[in-house]
């Protein structure tokens, strides 16, 4: 696997703004891996690829979910969730990424899941707090991330769940599970 080619391939999937976000997630994920004892190389790779399919057309993602037997339940929830599963499929198929830890971190970076791995947490949190992000509560999350991945990420899921409720949107069940698990881990 050639990281430089993978960078160019990833960059070519998305507009520049999304690429700048990706670079921010890479930087933040490596910092978090170093802070919390994660694998910095895997964090870098998963962060680089996490939004690989984010800018793909909705109908292309829907077709891949159907034909490649990705979880059909996704189609009943917000389209924002789709790129994570489609992206994991895409990097496995287009770039022969076979590391299941890396693929899972990509696949669950939006929804979260039960019993998130250290790598899952690092990528998901880096996605929330990379330097280019600006939303109410992001600085609180950055502060929490100085000492606790779980506290910071639980705060992130809390804010996403509140937003979805305000918007009258359904909440993907794994997000609720992820948030509950994180809170349980904090006790
Ligand atoms: O791809 P990014 O914009 O970098 O970030 P992301 O992959 O974390 O996507 C987050 C978006 O997904 C956010 O705007 C909220 C939306 N979303 C819709 N339904 C759900 C959801 N996020 C979660 N965690 N759970 C949902 O059920
Ligand atoms: Fe994403
Ligand atoms: Fe996220
Ligand atoms: Fe992202």
Question: Tags for this entry?
Answer:
187 residues; binds fe (iii) ion; mainly alpha; binds 2'-deoxyguanosine-5'-diphosphate; 10 helices; Hypothetical protein af1432
Distance between the termini: 41 Å
Total DSSP E strands = 0
Count of spatially separate domains: 1
Could you give me the name of the CATH homologous superfamily? Hypothetical protein af1432
Order of helices and strands: HHHHHHHHHH
- Bound ligands: 2'-deoxyguanosine-5'-diphosphate, fe (iii) ion
Count up the helices. 10
Portion in strands = under 5%
Q: Any idea what the radius of gyration is?
A: 15 Å
Helix content: 55-70%
Structural class: mainly alpha
Low-pLDDT stretches are: none
Shape assignment: globular
Return the average pLDDT rounded to an integer: 98
CATH class: Mainly Alpha
Q: Would you give the CATH topology?
A: Hypothetical protein af1432
CATH architecture label: Orthogonal Bundle
Q: Main β-sheet: number of strands, strand sense, barrel status?
A: none
Task: Please characterize this protein's 3D structure.
The structure is a single chain. With 187 residues, the chain is an all-alpha fold. It has one domain (3-135): Hypothetical protein af1432 (Orthogonal Bundle). Helix content is 66%, strand content 0%. It contains ten helices and no strands.
């Amino acid at each position: 696997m050639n990281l430089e080619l993978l960078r160019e391939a990833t960059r070519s999937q998305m507009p520049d703004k999304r690429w700048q976000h990706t670079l921010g997630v890479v930087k933040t994920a490596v910092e978090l891996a170093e802070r919390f004892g994660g694998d910095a190389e895997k964090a870098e790779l998963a962060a680089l690829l996490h939004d690989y399919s984010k800018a793909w057309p909705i109908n292309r993602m829907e077709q891949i979910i159907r034909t490649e037997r990705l979880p059909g339940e996704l189609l009943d929830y917000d389209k924002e969730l789709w790129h994570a599963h489609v992206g994991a499929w895409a990097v496995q198929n287009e770039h022969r990424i076979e590391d299941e830890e890396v693929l899972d971190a990509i696949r669950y970076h939006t929804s979260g899941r039960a019993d998130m791995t250290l790598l899952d947490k690092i990528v998901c949190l880096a996605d929330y707090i990379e330097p280019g992000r600006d939303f109410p509560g992001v600085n609180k999350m950055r502060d929490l991330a100085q000492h606790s991945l779980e506290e910071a990420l639980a705060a992130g899921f809390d804010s996403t769940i509140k937003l979805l409720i305000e918007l009258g949107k359904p909440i993907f069940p794994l997000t609720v599970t992820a948030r509950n698990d994180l809170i349980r881990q904090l006790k």
